[in-house]
Amino acid sequence: MNHRFKTLLLLLIASFVSVSFFYWSYPSWSNLVPIPFVNGDLIQSENAVSGMTTFNAPKYRPLDYATPKSHEIVILLASDGHTSNGNGASFFQECIDNRIAYAKEHNYAFEFVNVSSMPIPPVWAKMPAILATMDKYPQAKWIWWLDQDAIIMNKKLSLQDHLLSKKALRRSLLRNQHYLNNQDATETHLVTPSEYSDADLDKVGLIISRDLNGLNAGSFFVRVNPIMRMFVDVWSDKAYRENKVSENEQSLLGYLMKNHPEMASYVGFVPQKMINSYDASEDVQRYTQGDLLIHFAGCWVENRCERIWRQYYDEMKLNWNL
Ligand SMILES: *[C@@H]1O[C@H](CO)[C@@H](O)[C@H](O)[C@H]1NC(C)=O
Question: Which residues cross the membrane (predicted)?
Fold first, then answer.
């Protein structure tokens, strides 16, 4: 064998070895293991989540140019099939269809957690469901929580372009915002940064919006990382619920932000219409064509859920060819 041929052969073998190492060391999206430091026994409480259904499993796309990559985003719904007023069972399948269509369009995961066997009111089941989703998708970058009584209306809009890429985040986050709603704002001087550096943007772990009453947890985004896992873990602590610190999950979030500036510093606000438009009369919150979604918050007050759900669902179906 001449020298040149040997060198060539060696090079070939070396490149084969490195290419295959690279290939095999990529995690397969369907085989991710839960974060190791979560001790299953410790979280087997009333927070334990049993029925998880993957309604859309994304394709693993390591070469996706977007950041975060499409398969690193999980859309999450946890419900007992009803909305907060006990109605809405008839919309359940339509809600699922709407989200599957959107998730497929953009290659996102769509996960459903059935909370009907959990011994707590569904709004308090959001946080355990988020924790369970973090365990199931430890490689995910973001989880989008969206209530059942909402319809995604703009199929073309990707979450990265709209909100989650660094560029979109920088454009969207509200500066100099009091962490609390207008009534409470005087009690604290905490405000969001007047400018977001790259490091600040990377730190933002919870993106939420406020309606005219304050925080609304119908639509929000949580980054998947150890700090946000701890954040949500604290948020899920049943002691707050049992001792009636807050009446629901969103007012508890307000409480935590008010009393724990360190936690507040991970929260970013965006204009309501970006992630949580309503069927309402005020411009700042009224759904208009092109918005990402419409959320029927409080529609049961005037008993108009069925009518407006039908109206917007039909409009969406027509536009999406569902
Ligand atoms: C949730 O689970 C319960 C029983 O565990 C079942 O009766 C119900 O149909 C499930 N609901 C949905 C929406 O999957």
Answer: 7-26
Specify the residue with its C-alpha closest to ligand 1, atom 1: 114
Per-residue model confidence as pLDDT tens digits over 46-80: 556 778 999 999 999 989 999 999 999 999 999 98
Q: pTM here?
A: 0.86
Q: Which atom of ligand 1 sits closest to the CA of residue 53?
A: 14
Per residue in 105-133, pLDDT (tens digit) is: 999 999 999 998 888 888 899 999 999 99
Q: What's the distance, CA 83 to chain centroid?
A: 18
Cα 81 to ligand 1 centroid, rounded to whole Å: 7
d(CA 295, CA 279): 7
Nearest 10 degrees: CA dihedral of 93, 99, 100, 103? Answer: -170
51-320 has which CATH code?
A: 3.90.550.10
Q: Is the CB of 117 under 6 A from ligand 1?
A: yes
Q: Around Cβ 264, how many Cβ atoms within 10 Å?
A: 20
For 248, other C-beta atoms within 10 Å of its C-beta total 14
